[in-house]
Amino acid sequence: MNFVKMHGLGNDFIVCEEREAPENASELAVRLCDRHFGIGADGLVYILPSEAADAKMRIFNADGTEAEQCGNAVRCVAKYVWERNPGNGGDGQLTIETKGAGVQSVRVFTEAGKAVRVRVDMGKPVLTGLDIPTTIAADQVVNRTLEIGGHRFLFTAVSMGNPHCVIPVDDAAAFDVNYWGPKLERHEWFPNRTNVEFVTVERPDRAVMRVWERGAGQTLACGTGACAVLVAGVLGGTMARSGTVSLAGGDLHIEWDEETGRVFMTGEAEEVYKGRLIV
């Protein structure tokens, strides 16, 4: 199996181009993503043919579960596809089919023939409680109180093709993500589990975020999570519709367009190395 190790702001992936994902993809993800006995990654990504887009993406988390969507992986897939088929990209425009968010339009920005940044149309956020999904029947789940482990959190729920629980904290960079993340991920209000973002808004156009990803644990970055953070900030009146979300692995620029209701994410994608694995 040929693979490319890639990352988006440190959120890293084993990327394989195949005709179809193998039946044992979940098992492979667990084995290959292990950082001691495998290659090591947050997820295993398959780039597949698509009848609806330039490429199709399937992503399996490090625990073997299949994710509906991953913003950092989409940028990596766009870089991979464009650099290996630059003619298909034309002016840098590509489309990537995903499981949870359908076909996404991306624009690749290049320097010296290499894709250095990618802007992704992440679509419209889902805000209705039951559709995210949560167990809360409400048009919007904004600044709700959640009690767990003797502690109260305020949270806003957003889906960007996958579920997110956005929680404001005093100091996101110092917050104990590894303790609270897994508890909140599996809270009974989130029937499909959830990604959890701990965020400190420094000013309307800038927030600091740390993330616990469903199925992967604490990661250095989460693209859909950054989008959810800005959407939650706008809904809660703490953020503007365009701004920077600072993650442990770097910064993403997020914009929630008022006219179309669509969220746009711009950030880097990098290729680390290529390899061949006999599985």
Structure description:
- The chain has helices at 25-33, 71-84, 86-89, 177-185, 223-236, and strands spanning 2-8, 11-17, 43-48, 55-61, 66-67, 93-98, 102-111, 114-123, 141-148, 151-159, 163-168, 195-203, 206-213, 217-219, 242-247, 250-256, 263-268, 270-276.
- It has 2 domains: 2-119 and 267-276, Diaminopimelate Epimerase, Chain A, domain 1 (Roll), CATH 3.10.310.10; 129-261, Roll (Diaminopimelate Epimerase, Chain A, domain 1).
- It has an 18-stranded mixed sheet that branches.
- The protein is of the alpha+beta class.
- Helix 4 (177-185) links the parallel strand 11 (163-168) and strand 12 (195-203).
- The longest helix has 14 residues, at 71-84.
Major sheet: 18 strands, mixed
**CATH class division of the largest domain:** Alpha Beta
CATH architecture classification name of the largest domain: Roll
Shape, principal axes of CA atoms: globular
Share of helical residues: 10-25%
Rg from Cα: 18 Å
The low-confidence parts are none
Number of strands: 18
CATH topology group of the largest domain: Diaminopimelate Epimerase, Chain A, domain 1
TL;DR?
By secondary structure, the chain is of the alpha+beta class. The chain has five helices and 18 strands.
Question: Secondary-structure map with pairings?
Answer:
Layout (H helix, E strand, L loop, with lengths): L1 E7 L2 E7 L7 H9 L9 E6 L6 E7 L4 E2 L3 H14 L1 H4 L3 E6 L3 E10 L2 E10 L17 E8 L2 E9 L3 E6 L8 H9 L9 E9 L2 E8 L3 E3 L3 H14 L5 E6 L2 E7 L6 E6 L1 E7 L3
Parallel strand pairs: 2-3, 4-6, 11-12, 13-15
Antiparallel strand pairs: 1-2, 1-18, 3-4, 4-5, 6-7, 7-8, 8-17, 9-10, 10-11, 12-13, 13-14, 15-16, 16-17
